[in-house]
C-alpha cells in the first residue's frame, strides 16, 4: 500500500505508543532506589531493567537483554508465551521481574534462562539452572530464588551454594538447585496460574514465599478434567496444531489446590471446601498475619476470605461476600494491615467501598477500584470520583492522626487524570495521564503522614510523541447519563454539515474506554480525521460508575449493552453534527460482539459493522467469565441462546435489511478462538446475509504484529467508507 497516513504506521511501530515508556515500578524500603522497566527508544521492543538512584540522582541500566543474550534471538517456552498472552504482554526482553524485600536483588527470566541483578551495583549474572525458567521470584531475604521449570517448582541458592533437602541431600548430586514440588501426573503443574486465573481473575502467579523465607506456598493445577481444543495454523499445514486446555462455559475447570513446602523438605497440604469453592482468586502472605486466601463458588455469587494455619494446613473463614448477581475479586485485596486487620473492597449501599475490618473507610461518590499499598496508618488506593473518567490515587487513614475518617487525593491536578501508584516506605511512584498532553507523567513523591506531598524526582520516558492530537469531548448522554467521548475531524467547523458516524466502543465488563487519558483516544481521533464523527460510549456493564451500573447486564448482556449504544447515539444527535442515515460501528473482542449485535439486531440504526474477534457462540467462551454474567449453560440454556449471535434464538433477533459486515479474526487466537467467527460466517451464509471475512494468519487476540496493526486500520477505513457511500 502507498500513500499511507503516518499515524497507523507510527501506532503500529510504537506498539500503541507504549515502547520507551517506563513501567513496572518497585520502590526500595530505604528510599534509595526505584527499579523499573523501559525500552531504549519508542520503537524498540526489548525492555531493559533500570534503576533510579535517588541519592545520586541518576538512572542506570541494571540489565540489558541484548548484552545478556549476546545478540541471539529470544527463545520463549510455550508456558512463557501463554503467560504473555494472558497478561496482554507484546514487548520483548525483560517483561517482568521480582525483587527481594530490600529491593537489592532482582530475578527475571530471559529466553528461558534465569538471571539475577544486584541492584545497588547494577550488575547481572546468570544462575545455571534447568529450564526453561518461568516466573522466578527471590525469597524476601534475597538468599534463594524459586521458579518453575517443566511444571516443577524449584529453588536455587543465589550464592551458588548447595540447597539441601531435609535429610541433607540434594536432587542433583550437589547441584545448587533442587525440586520443591514434583508433578504427580502428566497434566499437573506446580507454581503456575491456570488459564482461568490469569485470563479472568487477574491472578498471574502460582506461588508465594513466606515472610521468613523458609517456605513456599504453591498452587497445584491439574488440567486433566479440562477439555482439549486444537489451535491450528492453516497457512502452515505442515505444522501440528497446538493442543490447549480450554474450560468452555458449562465444562470442567482445572482442579486447583495449595500446599506449603518448607526449604527443610516438609510439605503441608492446605484444606478448604474446594467442591463448594473451586476458584482460587487471590493469595496474600505478609508478615502482618497468616496466609490469606480468597476463594469463590463456581456461580460466583459467594466468596470467602480464609486464613491458613501453616502448621496444620487448616483454614478458617474470616469474612464472606454474597451477591445476587456476582461477586468480584479486586486487585490488591484481601490483605492485612500491619496490626492484623483485614483489608477488602466490597459493594455496600450502592457503592463500592474500601474496608478495614468491618469499618468502611470510603463512601460515595468514590468508586474504589484497587488497593495499591497498605502503610502503617493508611491505605493507598485508586478510585473514580463523581466524574467516572477521572481515575485518581487516594489515601484513607485507619489509625493515627487521620483516624477521624475521610480521604484525600494524591497528586491532585486542576484537570482530570488517570492515575496509578506504587509505594514503598515513604516514597511513592505516581503515574498520571490526562487529556492535556500525550504520554504519562511519572513522579517520585514523598507523602507526608498527615497529608500533602513533595516531588523528589521524575522518571523520564523515551516514548514517541503521536503524530496527531486527540480532541475528545467527554459528555454524559441522555437520561441514563451514559459516559461518552465524541471526536470530530481535525479542522471541522460549524456549518460544514453533518458527518457519517462511527461508534467505537468496547462497551462491556472490565473495559472502560471513556477516560481522561490523551493516548486512549488516539485511534478514535484518527478515524474521526478520516471524515467521521466518532462516539465512544461506556454503557451499563462497563466499570467505574457503581455496582448497579456494572451488574445491570446480568443475564441480559446483549439487550442492555446494545440498547445503551443506541441510546447514547440518539441522545447525542441533538448536540453534535451526526448523520443518522450513515452510522457504522467497529469493535474488538466484546466490542466485536457488540458490533455484530448492532448490525444484526438494529439495522434501523446501524448501516455497517467491523466485527473484530467476536464472541458469537457464548458456550464457546470460558467458564469464569461467561457463567458470571449468564449463569451455567446447562441450567439457563435460554439465556445463552438469546445472547448468542449464532443460535436460532440469537439470529431470530436479526432484522432486515442486511447490513455490510466485515468479520476479522486471528487464526492463532487461544482466548476467543476463530471458531466464533467461522460459526458466525456459516450462520450468516445460511441466512443469506452478505458479509466479508478477513482471517489473520498467525495472529492471536492481541494483534501485536506491526504490519497487521497498521494495515488493519487502513482496511477498516476502506470498508467503512465503501459501506457508507463515502468518497475514498
TrEMBL record:
Please give the superkingdom of this protein's source.
Bacteria
* Location of the Dipeptidylpeptidase IV N-terminal domain: 110-358
Identify the residues that the record assigns to the Peptidase S9 prolyl oligopeptidase catalytic domain, covering every copy. Answer: 523-726
Keyword check for Cell wall biogenesis/degradation: no
Keywords (alphabetical) are: Hydrolase, Protease
State the species of origin: Streptomyces nigrescens
Species classification = Bacteria, Bacillati, Actinomycetota, Actinomycetes, Kitasatosporales
- Which InterPro entries is this protein grouped with? AB_hydrolase_fold, Pept_S9_AS, Peptidase_S9_cat, Peptidase_S9A, Peptidase_S9B_N, Serine_Prot_S9B/DPPIV
Keyword Hydrolase on entry: yes
Q: Which PROSITE patterns match?
A: PRO_ENDOPEP_SER (PS00708)
Q: What's the protein called, per UniProt?
A: Peptidase
Amino acid at each position: 500500500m502507498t500513500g499511507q497516513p503516518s499515524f497507523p504506521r507510527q501506532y503500529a511501530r510504537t506498539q500503541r505508543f507504549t515502547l520507551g515508556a517506563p513501567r513496572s515500578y518497585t520502590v526500595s524500603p530505604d528510599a534509595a532506589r526505584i527499579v523499573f522497566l523501559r525500552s531504549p527508544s519508542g520503537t524498540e521492543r526489548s525492555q531493559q531493567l533500570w534503576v533510579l538512584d535517588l541519592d545520586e540522582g541518576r538512572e542506570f541500566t541494571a540489565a540489558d537483554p541484548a548484552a545478556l543474550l549476546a545478540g541471539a534471538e529470544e527463545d520463549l517456552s510455550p508456558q512463557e508465551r501463554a503467560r504473555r498472552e494472558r497478561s496482554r504482554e507484546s514487548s520483548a526482553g525483560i517483561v517482568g521481574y521480582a525483587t527481594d524485600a530490600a529491593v537489592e536483588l532482582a530475578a527475571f527470566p530471559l529466553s528461558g534462562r534465569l538471571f539475577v541483578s544486584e541492584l545497588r551495583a547494577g550488575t547481572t549474572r546468570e544462575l545455571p539452572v534447568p529450564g526453561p525458567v518461568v516466573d522466578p521470584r527471590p525469597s524476601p531475604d534475597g538468599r534463594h530464588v524459586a521458579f518453575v521449570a517443566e511444571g516443577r517448582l524449584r529453588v536455587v541458592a543465589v550464592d551458588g551454594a548447595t540447597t539441601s533437602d531435609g535429610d541433607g541431600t540434594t536432587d542433583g548430586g550437589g547441584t545448587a538447585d533442587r525440586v520443591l514440588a514434583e508433578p504427580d501426573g502428566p497434566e499437573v503443574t506446580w507454581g503456575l496460574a491456570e488459564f482461568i486465573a490469569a485470563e479472568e481473575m487477574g491472578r498471574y502467579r502460582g506461588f508465594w514465599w513466606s515472610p521468613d523465607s523458609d517456605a513456599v506456598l504453591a498452587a497445584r493445577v491439574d488440567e486433566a478434567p479440562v477439555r482439549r481444543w486444537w489451535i491450528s495454523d492453516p497457512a502452515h499445514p505442515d505444522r501440528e496444531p497446538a493442543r490447549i486446555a480450554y474450560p468452555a462455559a458449562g465444562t470442567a475447570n482445572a482442579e486447583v489446590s495449595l500446599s506449603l513446602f518448607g526449604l527443610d523438605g516438609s510439605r503441608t497440604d492446605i484444606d478448604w471446601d474446594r467442591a463448594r469453592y473451586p476458584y482460587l482468586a487471590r493469595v496474600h502472605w505478609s508478615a502482618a498475619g497468616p496466609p490469606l486466601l480468597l476463594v469463590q463458588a463456581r456461580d460466583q455469587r459467594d466468596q470467602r476470605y480464609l486464613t491458613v494455619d501453616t502448621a496444620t494446613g487448616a483454614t478458617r473463614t474470616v469474612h464472606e461476600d454474597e451477591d445476587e448477581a456476582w461477586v468480584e475479586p479486586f486487585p490488591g485485596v484481601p490483605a492485612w494491615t500491619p496490626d492484623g486487620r483485614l483489608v477488602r473492597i466490597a459493594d455496600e449501599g450502592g457503592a463500592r467501598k474500601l474496608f478495614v475490618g468491618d469499618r468502611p473507610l470510603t463512601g460515595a461518590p468514590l468508586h474504589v477500584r484497587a488497593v495499591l499499598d497498605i502503610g502503617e496508618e493508611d491505605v493507598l488506593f485508586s478510585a473514580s470520583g463523581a466524574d467516572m473518567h477521572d481515575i485518581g490515587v487516594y489515601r484513607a487513614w485507619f489509625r493515627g492522626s487521620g483516624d477521624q475518617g475521610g480521604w484525600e487525593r494524591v497528586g491532585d491536578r486542576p484537570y482530570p487524570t488517570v492515575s496509578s501508584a506504587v509505594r514503598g516506605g515513604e516514597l511513592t511512584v505516581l503515574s498520571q495521564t490526562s487529556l492535556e498532553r500525550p504520554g504519562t507523567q511519572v513522579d517520585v513523591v514523598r507523602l507526608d503522614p498527615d497529608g500533602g506531598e513533595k516531588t523528589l524526582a521524575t522518571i523520564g520516558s523515551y516514548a514517541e510523541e503521536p503524530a496527531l492530537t486527540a480532541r475528545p469531548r467527554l459528555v454524559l448522554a441522555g437520561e441514563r447519563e451514559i459516559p461518552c467521548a465524541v471526536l470530530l475531524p481535525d479542522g471541522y467547523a460549524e456549518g460544514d454539515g453533518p458527518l457519517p458516524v462511527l461508534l467505537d466502543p468496547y462497551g462491556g465488563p472490565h473495559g472502560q474506554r471513556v477516560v481522561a487519558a490523551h493516548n486512549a483516544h488516539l485511534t478514535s481521533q484518527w478515524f474521526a480525521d478520516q471524515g467521521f464523527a466518532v462516539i465512544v460510549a461506556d454503557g451499563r456493564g462497563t466499570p467505574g460508575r457503581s455496582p448497579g451500573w456494572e451488574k445491570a447486564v446480568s443475564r441480559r448482556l446483549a439487550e442492555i449493552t446494545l440498547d445503551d449504544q443506541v441510546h447514547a447515539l440518539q441522545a447525542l444527535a441533538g448536540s453534535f453534527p451526526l448523520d443518522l442515515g450513515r452510522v457504522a460501528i467497529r469493535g474488538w473482542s466484546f466490542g466485536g460482539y457488540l458490533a455484530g449485535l448492532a448490525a444484526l439486531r438494529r439495522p434501523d440504526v446501524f448501516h455497517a459493522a467491523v466485527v473484530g474477534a467476536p464472541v458469537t457462540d457464548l458456550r464457546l467462551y470460558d467458564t469464569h467469565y461467561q457463567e458470571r454474567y449468564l449463569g451455567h449453560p446447562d441450567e439457563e440454556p435460554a439465556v445463552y441462546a438469546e445472547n448468542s449471535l449464532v443460535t436460532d434464538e440469537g439470529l431470530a433477533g436479526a432484522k432486515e435489511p442486511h447490513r455490510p459486515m466485515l468479520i476479522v479474526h486471528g487464526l492463532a487466537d487461544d482466548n476467543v478462538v476463530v471458531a466464533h467467527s467461522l460459526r458466525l460466517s456459516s450462520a450468516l451464509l445460511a441466512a443469506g446475509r452478505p458479509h466479508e471475512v478477513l482471517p489473520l494468519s498467525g495472529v492471536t487476540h492481541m494483534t501485536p504484529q506491526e504490519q497487521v496493526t497498521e494495515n488493519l486500520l487502513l482496511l477498516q477505513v476502506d470498508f467503512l467508507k465503501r459501506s457508507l457511500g463515502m468518497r475514498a
